[in-house]
Amino acid sequence: MDTMRRATTFMTERVSTRGGYVWSYLADFSRRWGEMEAWPGMIWTQAPGTPEMGQIFLDAYHATGETLYYEAAVRAGDALIAGQHPSGGWNYIIDFDGEASLRRWYETIGRNGWRLEEFQHYYGNATFDDHATVECGRFLLRLHLEKGEPRFRAAVDKVIGFVLDSQYPVGGWPQRFPKAGEFSNHGRPDYTGHITLNDEVAQENIDFLLLVLQQLGQERVREPLMRAMELMIALQQPQPTPGWAMQYTPDLKPAPARTYEPASITPHGTAAAVNQLLDYYELTGEPKYLARVGEAIDWIAGLELPRDQWTADGRNFYRNYEPGTGRLIATHRRGSNAQNGEYWTDFDTAGIRPEKHIDVARLRARYQRVQGLTPEQATRSSVLLGRGESLMPPYVITEAVGGSDLNVTAAAARAEAVADLIARLNDEGYWPQELRTTSHPYRGDGPAEPPPGFVDRGQVGDDWDTSPFTEPTGPTGISTGLYINNMSRLIGYLRETDAA
Fold this sequence. Notes:
Layout: H1 2-15, E1 24-26, E2 32-33, E3 37-38, E4 42-44, H2 50-64, H3 67-82, E5 93-95, H4 99-110, E6 126-127, H5 132-147, H6 150-166, E7 176-177, E8 195-196, H7 201-216, H8 222-235, E9 247-248, H9 267-284, H10 293-303, E10 320-321, E11 328-334, E12 342-346, H11 360-371, H12 375-378, H13 406-411, H14 418-424, E13 433-434, E14 437-438, E15 469-470, E16 476-479, H15 480-499
Antiparallel strand pairs: 1-2, 1-16, 2-3, 4-5, 6-7, 8-9, 10-11, 11-12, 13-16, 14-15
Helix pairs in contact: 1-15, 2-3, 2-5, 2-15, 3-5, 5-6, 5-7, 7-8, 9-10, 9-11, 10-11
């Protein structure tokens, strides 16, 4: 408990920006990062950022009863409220130095992140991408339920309005809302208004509406979430590619997004959609959700690579297949930075590597189990029907989090003994983390041609590319994700000892 207090005091007093957080910091705070390098006045809404910090504070409050943690959670909630878009959602970034500062960031660091095209343009609206809006809403709802403070309920009501207002009549959601002015997507159409499944947009929104239905009893969300679930049936493609795309046009045709994301059917997206349909049968008991699941699983199984072609970390599937033909699509890039570089796709697949892991046997086994249930058996714990456990448990972060933070995923969560965690907290009050993921500092727009001798390493281009990249070694720093994961381990230990 002393270790938890010391670590939390360091994070709240030394690391926090007005109650919020980014992902990682050099030990002297001379640089800091969210998904890209951040400025001192910024906090991040993407995991493992400010909403997850709020959640672990509430977990610690429940485990100890100490007001230190509740007060830290309140400050995180107030930081999110301060950055809530008037529409009710959130952008990836909140900049407490103001709109002009945020625009300058997009025109400098954001514009020069070659790989992260979503940061190359300032939209001025809110996003569902990377769970940014829903994670904020979920935390604020939990914070409101804790003690009923009205300002948190008012913020939650705005989030609910955002989710309902942004939903299309057909049932899906765009990536961003409200619609911003047209922008140049490297000469391609704006993709942010497409019906989006990528990064679990639809699933996260459905789960959030289920949470609202159960915890707040708001019946107005029932029809929108039913409409969203039924859309998943309509989005499944016909043979010979009976899977799902990552985004769709308004007439439900697979659509492209960023320049390296072609209109395609994806095995990993299809596996996610299958699991969602199985969930929906267990919510409703309606057989229509199972009607074509078998086709989808068979299609996935037919694409699995032979074991000797898997990567060392178990990736056994390629990413993109052409709708209607099933041809494998390859993505390539040339150039060295956001100014002279470009991505393109074709069918020249020589040299491409598997990108995704799918446990096909486990997926099929779940389908067979759920398929064998009667509607009454399937819906025994249906939240939609007012059954089952609370979707807001007393402890939310019970497994290691990583989100898009490459420093956390590169290090991986270690199953350390509690004594070792206590010993590793340094004298300043934080757990040192080797920051192997870094980025080039902004140095202006890149040259119009690649520098002499440039060799593309994949994650990052030349010295003008501000995209994050991972090195074999890095400096020691402070990691929000590591704090969350270590606190979760210590909270788990307290719960175990209390139970004993």
